[in-house]
Design a protein that fits this description.
- The chain is mostly helical.
- It is built from 27 helices and no strands.
- It has helices at residues 11-26, 34-46, 50-63, 69-80, 84-97, 102-114, 118-129, 135-149, 152-165, 170-182, 186-199, 204-216, 220-233, 238-250, 254-263, 272-284, 288-301, 306-318, 322-335, 340-352, 356-369, 374-383, 391-401, 408-420, 424-437, 442-448, 456-466.
- Helix 1 crosses helix 2, helix 2 (34-46) packs parallel to helix 4 (69-80) and helix 13 (220-233) packs antiparallel against helix 14.
Length: 468
């Protein structure tokens, strides 16, 4: 029997379980009353200590053979052993005798959930609601079953009902916020949390979530106002200062952003991410010296902060030091090899330095991971134009179009290469096709082929589609 009881959070329960375990290991078991045994068994079952739960249940039933409360716990034990049908059979038999026992339905629901039969689990939880006064836990369990089904709208519905039962249940506010986020229901979330803080004005978590959703809608002033309410309630709520910094950054008020990012350090340990954001703010203020200071502090805290290495790389690019930039970007890519945007930025620096072989490798790797990365396709094609031979670039763009035929940029680029390759008639066919898709992007074509502006055929097309 495992004597490590760190998994038990309740000190009184820990003492009781410890007394039981020591007695069991000594071979002499004193008498425990029914309530004590139920506490011991529940601790084991809740802590997923299934074998220990089985031992405790057997001893409990020996000492209290007439007690009925252990039967449901034995069914939970069977569920933990994955003996689901045996557990359900036992529970069905108990239900015939104790039809008003909510624990029976809850246990059946838990078993069905383990079997991934979430609709049946929901049905049992709803039965249990009829026979208990503590509805909050059951309603939240129903919500999580709907989550397991991928039915987030019903999950939101039942979490809201659960919160109505106990508005101070903060962990459910976290869950509700998560469901609103993954369903992109930001406006609904704002409406809900505004209503919630009207009734519960001292809920710092509700104000915080309201700020998060205002920020996601780019309503930065309202987000800041919500976070300031958080700080008024709890001045040591570090995340509120951090998020105010983010909102000021969204407003491009970078000096204020720096102030609030730094304020977080009064209430929690300095961390790499916050220093990186401070560095980005200084970078946006074109204060490269302070940007470098904070990126380096971030790396002193966490040398594997890809974001900080990227910050150093951007500063190096701004200072026209591409050699340093390449080294910094390479370090970031090593840390986060699946981040195609980092690889793309590194490839662009390679291109600018005419290191086309390295750039091609990176662009091809990006496309392997994301065939819809249009800029990677276009720049890969550009790498092959260095010898003024357009057959390979045409081949690249045609390949890109196999999975991205809705991209006007690719059709314009194909037209450009065909024009350069002397296939003017084909080029104009694709220019017109691209203009029908997105007229405004013809500027990209003119950037590559400025001579078109002097061709009446091209200007006629511009006139036609500009006014269509």
């Amino acid at each position: 029997m495992d004597l490590n009881l760190d998994w038990i959070g309740d000190e009184e329960g820990r003492e009781l379980v410890n007394r039981f375990q020591e007695a069991y290991m000594s071979g002499f078991l004193p008498f425990f009353d029914v309530d004590d045994f139920e506490t011991i068994i529940d601790f084991y079952l809740d802590g997923n200590k299934i074998d220990e739960a089985g031992i405790a249940i057997n001893i409990a039933m020996e000492q209290h053979p007439s007690a009925t409360g252990f039967s449901v716990r034995y069914a939970r034990y069977l569920g933990g052993k994955r003996e689901y049908y045996e557990a359900l059979e036992l529970l069905n038999n108990i239900e015939l005798i104790e039809m008003a026992n909510a624990d029976v339905y809850v246990c059946k629901a838990e078993i069905y959930s383990l079997m991934n039969k979430h609709e049946m689990a929901i049905e049992e939880y709803k039965k249990a609601l009829e026979f208990t006064e503590n509805k909050e836990d059951l309603l939240s369990s129903i919500a999580f079953e709907y989550e397991n089904k991928g039915d987030y709208l019903n999950a939101i519905k039942y979490l809201k009902i659960a919160i109505d039962e106990n508005p101070e249940t903060e962990h459910l506010l976290h869950e509700l916020s998560f469901f609103y986020e993954i369903t992109s229901k930001e406006e609904d979330a704002i409406e809900y949390f505004n209503h919630y803080v009207d009734k519960n004005p001292y809920s710092k978590l509700a104000w915080f979530n309201l700020g998060v959703f205002y920020n996601s809608m780019e309503l930065y002033e309202k987000a800041i106002e919500s976070y300031e309410f958080v700080i008024a309630i709890d001045e040591a709520f570090a995340s509120a200062y951090f998020n105010i910094g983010n909102s000021y950054s969204g407003l491009k008020h970078y000096k204020k952003a720096v102030k609030y990012y730094k304020e977080t350090f009064n209430y929690e340990e300095e961390d790499a991410l916050t220093h990186t954001y401070i560095g980005e703010s200084y970078e946006n203020l074109e204060d490269m010296q302070n940007a470098l200071i904070h990126y380096n502090i971030a790396l002193n805290i966490d040398s594997n902060s890809a974001e900080a290495w990227v910050g150093l790389a951007r500063v190096a690019v701004a200072e026209a030091d591409d050699i340093k930039a390449i080294n910094f970007y390479k370090r970031a890519v090593e840390i986060n090899p699946h981040n195609v945007d980092l690889a793309y930025d590194l490839a662009i620096v390679y291109m600018r330095n005419n290191n086309l072989e390295e750039a091609i490798v990176l662009f091809e790797n990006i496309i392997d991971q994301d065939e819809n990365y249009i800029d990677a396709w276009i720049n890969l094609s550009v790498c092959y134009t260095s010898e003024n031979n357009f057959e390979k670039p045409i081949e690249v763009i045609e390949k890109a179009l196999e999975s991205n035929d809705e991209s006007a940029s690719l059709w314009y680029r194909l037209a450009a290469y065909l024009y350069k390759n002397g296939k003017v008639q084909q080029a104009y066919y694709y220019i017109e096709k691209a203009m029908k898709m997105d007229f405004d992007l013809h500027i990209e074509l003119l950037d590559y082929l400025p001579e078109l502006i002097s061709e009446s055929r091209f200007t006629d097309l511009v006139y036609t589609y500009k006014n269509s």
